[in-house]
Amino acid sequence: MGAAMFIQDARGKFNANETLDMLHTYPITTLCAPPTVYRMLVLDEPIAHLKTHPPKALRHCVGAGEPLNPEVIRMWEQHTGLTIRDGYGQTETVLLCANFPSLEVKPGSMGKPSPGFDVSVIDHNGQELPPHKEGDIAVRIKPERPKWMFQEYWHNPEATAASIRGDWYITGDRAYKDEDGYLWFVGRADDVIISAGYRIGPFEVESALKEHPAIAESAVIASPDAMRGEIVKAYVILAPGYQPTPQLASELQEHVKRVTAPYKYPREIEFVDTLPKTISGKIRRIALREMERQKKAGS
């Protein structure tokens, strides 16, 4: 048996209404897209278009590339009746965990480990951590390495050795497990913000911002600070109808304090029209961090 694959030609710029038209016109049953696409599909104008151009045959929605904010999952389900099933994997590992159809979806979670993988959260000594303790996402590779995992980094034994801690392959990402065994993404190890001794995951702050109606998309990074070492900074794209003002910035800061914790709010907010992204739609936080470093070095 075979299946047709539809690939949208965005011509350099994604258009949410064109995607909805394609889903409305053709018998597409599964939509796999990065979070940026889903975030744009739940803005006011595409939602209005969706009401008159509902998907013709859509049954499954999958998020890929980076974590998807719970608010986006809620809004998409509200307007389509379909749940976006998020997952997590790497080029080195393929799909490590997911919200499989047999599982109850916990919005914001990466789901549970894929069959054939022993995925856990470990500390710097290679010991598995209890629920709700943040650590490194790791895959057990001893005594037997999963057959569908990579074997080594080509001609780079140093990188290969650095990715192994005892019996585990270290993904370079941070997460925690809950009491039901679901994995919750915190951030890339180098994306986690350490401000005045507090460890702050950018994804939690971005998800809190997305719950505010003024936010279309955001990227949260560490910005150098003489007093705290690093502070939380948010680059924000506003939803249509909102204007960048100091009053709105203060409102967003108070909103994040209420939703997360007082120490996690973005002390700096910069309103922007676009965010740097990879060809697959992932936000390039490393580019934003470098931009911040250069700004602070020159000030």
Automatic annotation (TrEMBL):
GO terms for biological process: acyl-CoA metabolic process; fatty acid biosynthetic process. The keyword Repressor does not apply. Gene3D superfamilies: 3.30.300.30, N-terminal domain of ligase-like (3.40.50.12780). Signal peptide: none annotated. Residues 204-282 form the AMP-binding enzyme C-terminal domain. GO terms for molecular function: ATP binding; CoA-ligase activity; fatty acid ligase activity; fatty-acyl-CoA synthase activity. Keywords: ATP-binding, Ligase, Nucleotide-binding. InterPro entries: AMP-bd_C, AMP-bd_C_sf, AMP-dep_synth/lig_dom, ANL_N_sf, Mitochondrial_ACSM. Residues 2-154 form the AMP-dependent synthetase/ligase domain. Pfam families: AMP-binding (PF00501), AMP-binding_C (PF13193). PANTHER family: ACYL-COA SYNTHETASE MEDIUM CHAIN FAMILY MEMBER 3 (PTHR43605:SF10), ACYL-COENZYME A SYNTHETASE (PTHR43605). Belongs to the ATP-dependent AMP-binding enzyme family. This is Uncharacterized protein. It comes from Dictyobacter kobayashii. The lineage of its organism: Bacteria, Bacillati, Chloroflexota, Ktedonobacteria, Ktedonobacterales.
